[in-house]
């Protein structure tokens, strides 16, 4: 069954159809929440709340990008969670195991084709990226996550966060500059194409 039919059935109260939509979008919503929150447990909570909100509100969906509609719910859930925590996310990207030990390589980064050295380098770079994302103002971080990480176009991102298209473009430009500046502090971890050798960051 294709997506519009699933949505229609879910609007009629069919839980199986809604669960199929959940399976389709759960990874992208969780990854979005993870990047915004910077913490696996908080991201899982926000994702669960997003789907609960989506189920309660699905009858109000009136067409357009369903992905953007769901992204709006998870973004709102993240904002609510951050307000509840009353702090910006500063938890390292590496989650803890059940025993409270920090994982050396998060399971969502695991790649069996990587050598141990490559896994370490990828882990270090991922940590640097998350650190720089966490340093961004929340509204900047959200736009970067939606567009540069999740691949949404500007129009979808604008719909997801309910701001004008021009605001998305402005925030993204400023966010990318800040990320670029921050990541130069991890110069040795960056691929050669991203290093600014002798180049002014503000030119």
Features:
single chain; 203 residues; mainly alpha; Rna Polymerase Sigma Factor, Chain: A; Arc Repressor Mutant, subunit A; 2 domains; 0% strand; globular
Task: Please characterize this protein's 3D structure.
This protein is mainly α and 203 residues long. The protein folds into 2 domains: 1-89, Rna Polymerase Sigma Factor, Chain: A, CATH 1.10.1740; 113-203, Orthogonal Bundle (Arc Repressor Mutant, subunit A). It has helices at 3-11, 15-37, 40-57, 66-85, 116-135, 138-149, 154-161, 165-183. It is globular, with a radius of gyration of 18 Å. The termini are far apart.
CATH architecture of the largest domain: Orthogonal Bundle
The count of domains is: 2
The CATH top-level class label of the largest domain: Mainly Alpha
> What is the CATH topology assignment of the largest domain?
Arc Repressor Mutant, subunit A
Number of strands: 0
The dominant shape is globular
Mean pLDDT: 80
């Amino acid at each position: 069954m294709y997506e519009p039919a699933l949505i229609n059935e879910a609007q009629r109260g069919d839980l199986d159809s809604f669960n199929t939509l959940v399976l389709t979008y759960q990874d992208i919503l969780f990854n979005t929440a993870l990047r915004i929150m910077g913490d696996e447990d908080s991201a899982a909570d926000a994702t669960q709340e997003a789907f609960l909100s989506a189920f309660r509100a699905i009858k109000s969906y009136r067409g357009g990008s369903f992905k953007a509609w769901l992204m709006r719910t998870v973004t709102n859930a993240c904002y609510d969670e951050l307000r509840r925590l009353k702090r910006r996310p500063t938890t390292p990207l590496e989650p803890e195991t059940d025993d409270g030990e920090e994982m050396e390589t998060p399971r969502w980064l695991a790649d069996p084709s990587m050598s141990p050295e490559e896994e370490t380098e990828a882990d270090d770079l991922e940590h640097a990226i998350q650190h720089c994302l966490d340093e961004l103002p929340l509204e900047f971080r959200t736009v970067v996550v939606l567009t540069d990480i999740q691949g949404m176009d500007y129009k979808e991102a604008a719909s997801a966060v309910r701001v004008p298209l021009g605001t998305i473009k402005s925030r993204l430009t400023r966010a990318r500059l800040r990320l670029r500046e921050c990541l130069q502090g991890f110069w040795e971890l960056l691929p050669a194409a991203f290093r600014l050798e002798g180049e002014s960051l503000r030119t």
